[in-house]
Write a structure and sequence with these properties.
- The chain starts with 8 loop residues before the first helix and ends with a helix.
- By secondary structure, the protein is mainly α.
- The chain contains 6 helices and no strands.
- Helices cover about 70% and strands about 0% of the residues.
Length: about 130
């Protein structure tokens, strides 16, 4: 009944937040490219510690690494959802945690009361 991939309830709870953070990191990376200014009038040749272009590229690399780590966590959630043998549980988790529906909306979409779908998710994750 359980998926071979193991996730925690916190992985699910953070799914949407990680998606939004990845999007914001992408926007920050775009902003870091324009404009990239070099030091003006201080004799910087691109290898001095104060080189703003090098600093910008270092910052971009740091952001890319963070986005990659966040995406790997979300990929585990997606893999769990894809391999979960309980389709009802997967639908509950997808609608509530990934799409952002309330428990009531999730239950209504699946033909149950909100408290019922919440109890099923809680039981699986032993909350």
């Amino acid at each position: 009944m359980a998926s071979k991939t193991q996730i925690t309830i916190d992985d699910l709870r953070q799914y949407r937040s990680r998606k939004f953070e990845i999007m914001s990191i992408s926007e920050e990376i775009k902003a870091a490219y324009f404009p990239i200014k070099t030091a003006s009038g201080n004799g910087s040749n691109g290898s001095t510690p104060g080189d703003p272009t090098a600093a910008a590229f270092h910052h971009i690399e740091t952001l890319r690494n963070k986005a990659t780590r966040l995406q790997k966590r979300n990929d585990l959630v997606n893999l769990w959802l894809e391999t979960c043998e309980d389709s009802e549980l997967a639908a509950i988790c997808r609608l509530h945690y990934c799409v952002g529906k309330t428990w009531s909306e999730t239950g209504s979409m699946l033909g149950f009361a909100g408290i019922t779908v919440r109890a099923k998710a809680n039981k699986y994750f032993e909350i």
